[in-house]
TrEMBL record:
SUPFAM superfamilies: DNA clamp (SSF55979). GO terms for biological process: cellular response to ionizing radiation; DNA repair; DNA replication checkpoint signaling; mitotic intra-S DNA damage checkpoint signaling. GO terms for cellular component: checkpoint clamp complex. Pfam families: Rad9 (PF04139). Gene3D superfamilies: 3.70.10.10. It comes from Odocoileus virginianus (White-tailed deer). This is Cell cycle checkpoint control protein RAD9B isoform X5.
Length: 292
């Protein structure tokens, strides 16, 4: 059983998380626990994973239980809700309007009918109810120790936004190159022969522009741009810096956001820097979430 209550401003942050995760996959897992409500997403080729964990104190009210009452009997059920992104994303699309008009939002599950119910209590006594069907499915988690990475950069979203604004909407991949003296973010189509997409852009950022700057090894990593934009939009919404953890090409990188009320981790595969391998992101090491 899950039941949580949010204000209009909290709904906006919650919706931004869903929008960021929608850049990874067309499926979304709701994974409630005593630690809070986790939203998870992993793409079909398992090269990108995202999780946003909302602490119980983020909500005005948060209630979670593994047991439900059926025929006057308590039955232990693990709540594993897999939702279609096409079903839930339109509900949280117009976030500015929701923030202004929604006074309270309730989200709860009806496990007996496999539905997540989202209720908006708006101004002027208007009440909107959305019933979203879910499938029971164990959420996946990535096995990745980001704190073991040799390189860690912490940057404010406005600085990163100035860097990525250089890239066109058609940009699929970007390259991050670091040394102890500078950071370079560049488009990865330097040698492209396509004249319709032949712009090559670079931006250099000095160490002083970062909140934290640790470069243990000089390296260049290439990864998908779409997921980076999603993380950036989310971090701008909550005014929190982004931490980037990475090592060498072919090893996953982590983009993380730590706030008092939530924690976000996006793990992205990077291109392997080996001529013998195909130029495609490596898959992440995933595990099935186990619940007691």
């Amino acid at each position: 059983m899950l039941k949580c209550v949010m204000s209009g401003s909290q709904v906006k942050v919650f919706g931004k998380a869903i929008q960021a995760l929608s850049r990874i996959s067309d499926e979304l897992w709701l994974d409630p626990s005593e630690k809070g409500l986790a939203l998870r997403s992993v793409n079909s080729c398992r090269s990108a994973y995202g999780c946003v964990l909302f602490s119980p104190v983020f909500f005005q009210h948060y209630q979670w239980s593994t047991s439900v009452k059926m025929n006057d009997t308590d039955i232990i059920l693990n709540l594993n809700c897999r939702l279609g992104m096409k079903s839930i994303l339109p509900i949280f699309r117009c976030l500015n309007s929701l923030e202004k008009n929604v006074e309270k939002c309730k989200i709860f599950t009806r496990s007996d009918k496999c539905k997540v119910v989202i209720q908006f209590f708006c101004r002027h006594g208007i009440k909107k109810i959305h019933n979203v069907c879910f499938q029971e499915s164990q959420p996946l988690q990535v096995i990745f120790q980001k704190n073991m990475c040799a390189n860690t950069l912490v940057i404010q979203p406005r600085v990163l936004a100035e860097a990525v604004v250089l890239f066109t909407s058609s940009q699929e991949e970007v390259t991050l190159a670091v040394t102890p003296l500078k950071v370079c973010i560049k488009s990865s189509n330097e040698e492209s022969t396509d004249l319709t997409n032949s712009v090559y852009s670079e931006m250099f950022v000095g160490p002083d522009e970062f909140d934290f700057f640790q470069v243990g090894i000089d390296t260049e990593i290439t990864f998908c741009f779409k997921e980076l934009k999603g993380v950036l939009i989310f971090s701008e919404a909550i005014h929190a810096p982004i931490a980037i953890h990475f090592d060498f090409p072919g090893k996953p990188m982590a983009l993380s956001i730590d706030d008092m009320l939530l924690e976000a981790n996006f793990i992205l595969a990077t291109l392997a820097d080996e001529p013998s391998r195909a130029s495609s992101p490596q898959t992440l090491c995933l595990s099935q979430k186990q619940k007691s």
